[in-house]
Amino acid sequence: MKWIFVLLVSMILAVSFFSTPVMAGLEPDPSGSSTGTIMDVPAKSPGSPTLEEVAQVAGHNRVAINFVWTLLAGFLVMFMQPGFAMVETGFTRAKNVAHTMAMNFMVYPLGMLAFYICGFAFMFGGLGAIGTMGGYAGLNHEFTISLFGKPFGLFGLKGFFLSGSAYDAAVFTLFLFQMVFMDTTATIPTGALAERWKFLSFFIYAWFVGTVIYPIFGNWVWGGGWLAMLGQNFGLGHGHVDFAGSSVVHMTGGVIALVGAWLLGPRLGKFNRDGSPNPIPGHNIPMAVIGTFILAFGWFGFNAGSTLAGTDLRIGVIATNTMLASATGALAATLWMWLVRTKKPDPSMMCNGMLAGLVAITAPCAFVNSISACIIGLVAGVLVVEAVYFIEGKLKLDDPVGAISVHGVNGAWGCLALGLFADGTYGDGWNGVAGTVKGLFYGGTSQFIAQCIGIISNFIYVGLISIIVFKLIDLIVGNRVEPEAEITGLDIPEMGVPGYTGVKLDKHSETPISREVFTIG
Predict the structure, then answer these.
(1) Closest by alpha carbon to 190, among 66, 100, 87?
(2) Where are the beta strands (DSSP E) in 72-191?
(3) In this structure, is residue 44 part of a structural domain?
(4) Which CATH number goes with the domain that contains 62?
(5) How far apart are CA 328 and CA 353, in angstroms?
(6) Which pTM value belongs to this model?
(7) How many whole angstroms separate alpha carbon 259 and alpha carbon 465?
(8) Phi, psi of 159, rounded to the nearest 5 degrees
(9) Domain span at residue 69?
(10) What would the pLDDT profile of 113-122 be if each residue is shown by its tens digit?
(11) Among 218, 34, 35, which residue's Cα sits nearest to residue 126?
């Protein structure tokens, strides 16, 4: 581990030495005292306040409301982390509880520090003005190349270590909100690769996802990169539009999970010699159900918070659409399992159906009406069930929690849904294109094409970079635990402590049983 420490220190020194100086006229405002005000107005007169003075206060308060809203939404998204931990741990076996929980815990600080060092700069270093939070434009250096006579932004080059021109109240607020989004992406593969992933391999992966995997694609969509510019450059709608992260966050996590599950292989005993899968039930359905509700609660911050503006009254539509899609997703998955697949309502699929609906509505939540939100959730609920059966039965991939189906498949569906159902009531000026966002059903053919390009680009870029990262880590430390550790459980061999104390594990069901019951039995 010494080389990791040396590498980290070297990066800090290098970025500090080569940090870009602040340009004149773009001075940051660390205190926030000047943000949102009109500059160069007369001093306050003794009598009634002037119009300019009233505008000063109103402008500052408007931006302050947006700051508070964005931070509170970020806190909600951060609270989704225990939701993910509970869902993933509940859907896996008791002998791996400490290991699964530890991954969900450590991905937060590891990913955060990686994003702080350089991920944020790569993603938002060329963003330009932060309009809803005072218009600060110090993040203004995008690395671009010229193709077909058009600029293609690839990654930003300002904001390393939140220093220099990034030492601004608005930038810090944006960082917090965007960091917890990155953390959501980083934690998705921990469920798909649970019960056989070496903790040291995971430890290194968390740095890669926060530094390059997530931020680069994020820049293309949210940082002013080439996917966002498809509208301005080629007349394809408003470019690839993803309001809150169906592609940037969820599909990215799902594709990483797909690659990881493919390279690591299935858990021991998951598939028979003829390729038929064996069910490996989770040990605690109530834990998973509670985790799902925590995620649904945090999702209001995820989606409505992506306005970055408490003064944008569209937040009411966004939040309600989010809620409706989660309900129809859960209902569709339950009925599909009950009537078509197993003839029983499956609690685990109820949970995954709700999460699938939430993932699918994340991109289009601001651009569709309530009927469309319900349809999007219904389709997502069926998709997640069929995707689970296809990925396990046809692709022979082992995903203990259904992360690929929930986040990968429905992340793609959410982006397509925006290209179909966006009704033209919101989004004027999005990505610098005049007019509102319209999907195929409302005359926006080119918007649907832009959505397809974004999905294909995500699969190609994230898939390739994930293969490189997993292969590299495998060469250095290995990705998979030893078979003996997997059989006995990863808690003691990998973590040094059991997840449950005062219990023994039934050798057949591998669920916790109290000492008293175990002894009497």
Answers:
(1) 100
(2) 142-147, 150-156
(3) no
(4) 1.10.3430.10
(5) 8
(6) 0.92
(7) 10
(8) 110, 10
(9) 56-483
(10) 999 999 999 9
(11) 218
